[in-house]
Predict the 3D structure of the following.
Amino acid sequence: MDMPAFGASQTLTATQTFANAPQFDALLVPGGMGCFDPNDKGRPNPKNLNPVVDFVKAQYPGLKYLITVCTGSAVTSLTGLLDGKRATTFKGALPVLAKWRPQVQWVPRARWVVDGNIWTSSGVSSGMDVAFAFVKEVYGEETAAAIATWMEYVRHEDGDVDPFGIDV
């Protein structure tokens, strides 16, 4: 399998597959354009998503935390795990996802939403904010603040304050 190359001569080598992965405590589900059918952006892409959906479903019973970034909530919604829960996603995909999974209580005005042990974030940069909220929850405010300072990052600490919120 060809592995992607990164800067500074780094490469990424997979050491596990969906078939032999251990049970995780936390799982982060990213999104991206691969979530959508290239011929119909209003439909999921089963070729890309089915293996991921199956993996998330299999992992969930043992997870302490399930976190989605951007349209990672699209993937997660197809597992049924978001049904009846509050969740958010990339605002550009929200109208489509509201049709895919009306069983989800989609929140159009939130940078991130926590419902039980499921954390969903909206656009990709909101993924930074949900990550900091998660670090604060698990490791404490002092650790979250220290990391943000080291990164020179100004945190959005209230997930309900969303300047990019939309009406659906």
In short: The helical segments are 46-59, 72-77, 94-100, 126-139, 141-151. The chain has one domain: 26-151. Residues 65 and 117 are 5 Å apart (CA to CA).
